[in-house]
Design a protein that fits this description.
Blueprint (H helix, E strand, L loop, with lengths): L4 E7 L2 E7 L4 E6 L10 H14 L16 H10 L10 H7 L6 H9 L26 H12 L6
Antiparallel strand pairs: 1-2, 2-3
Length: 156
């Protein structure tokens, strides 16, 4: 991979690509099939932690993250990280948490541009009325992730 590293992980939801720089992870996305990989220590640790997450052995990731985005997007993604395992929030909740209650639509746009799926938990954001809202990985994957997190934990 040019200008970075990548690795693929076979999840219960299909193939996941983990991308990283020398500084940390800058992308996690669902993809059709693995391609040529160029792993580094961050992609390897990301795959290890994602495997533990799907096995319900990990509820909080501890990885260096380096997502690329605007300062506002960075602020939103930081707020997404505060939504705990098994919990959900709305775009309005996130807007209020960043002291910008009127930025609900902008929060939605930033959420949709989150480059680090699962680890930055954009799947935990639902509609104010409790319904599932869009998810880049598809609503079926979002529903699976929410159900996984809301099941009783096996190990901790």
């Amino acid at each position: 991979m040019r200008n970075g590293y990548n690795q693929f992980f076979a999840s219960p939801l299909g193939t996941v690509e983990i991308r990283a720089s020398a500084e940390g992870i800058n992308g996690v996305r669902f993809c059709d099939a693995p391609r040529e990989a160029s792993p580094n220590q961050h992609t390897c640790e990301g795959a290890k932690q994602l495997q533990a997450y799907f096995a319900k052995e990990l509820t909080e990731f501890s990885l260096p993250l380096c997502p690329h985005g605007t300062p506002f997007q960075q602020q939103v993604w930081q707020a997404l990280g505060a939504v705990g395992y098994g919990d959900t929030a709305s775009y309005a909740d996130i807007a209020r948490s960043i002291n910008n209650a009127k930025a609900v639509r902008a929060v939605g746009m930033a959420n949709g541009r989150n480059p680090i799926a699962i680890i930055i938990p954009c799947h935990r954001i639902i509609g104010s009325n409790g319904t599932l809202t869009g998810y880049a990985g598809g609503l079926e994957r979002k529903a699976f992730l929410l159900a996984l997190e809301q099941q009783e934990r096996v190990c901790q």
